[in-house]
Design goal:
By secondary structure, the protein is mainly α. 77% of the residues lie in helices and 0% in strands. It has one domain (2-262).
Amino acid sequence: MSGALLAAWALLARDLRAVVRSRSQLYSSLLMPLMLLAVLGTGVSSGLAPTSPRIIDGDYTSYLAPGMIAMTALFSSTFSSAGLYRDRESGLLRALLASPHGAPTIMFGKALAAILIGTVQALIVLVLAVVIPGIDLAWQFGWLGGAATVVATVLLLNVMLSGLSLLLAVRIKTMQGFHLIMNLALFPLFFLSGAFFPLDQVPAWLEIIGYINPLTYAVDLLHYASYADSPDGLIGPLIDTLVLGVLAVGMFAIGLRRAPRAF
């Protein structure tokens, strides 16, 4: 057991070093949400003056902040899993899977790296959102409890996404195909999660799709914990946590179980 843990830890440390050395990946994953906050948030707040009761005082920039935390986790975690393709093409993955530690240990170590990378980068965006002037987070139940809820939400979201990435990576044989499918799947899901606009302001058929979307529950919980000044109009932390927790555990378990056979 200790040998398997050490092997998983070694793979985790290796992937973390690769990300630290890839500064372009670090900068782009952080600059994109900040750019959207600055450009889209300010533009909508000043130019369109949103009137939805879910957007407090028409301040769209602050409303957008929890969604940008989710977006950072979303893309950092999933695209960190693309490292599987680099290891496959170099032959390293085949060698690792033939080691005495077994395929589940190898996949677990690499999945942990994706989870940690996505979580840390999302929390960096949270810290920046807190210190940037003009972004007002209500922390309706106190900043300590709210921050703990945000951390737990981001962690669960990354666990779910890493399981999904593993599941897709073992079925899609090229990195180009992986990125194409992930963009095709993730962008519509993210836009219909309530991150960019309240779901109660869209047509009924889009609202139904939004509530089927698992990302909706992560974004709702982030809004509940950090942005909203009351629970009115939100799904609620109990349902959010239950849905997100079940999906995270289920997707991660399925991803680990299927990956060894496919590789």
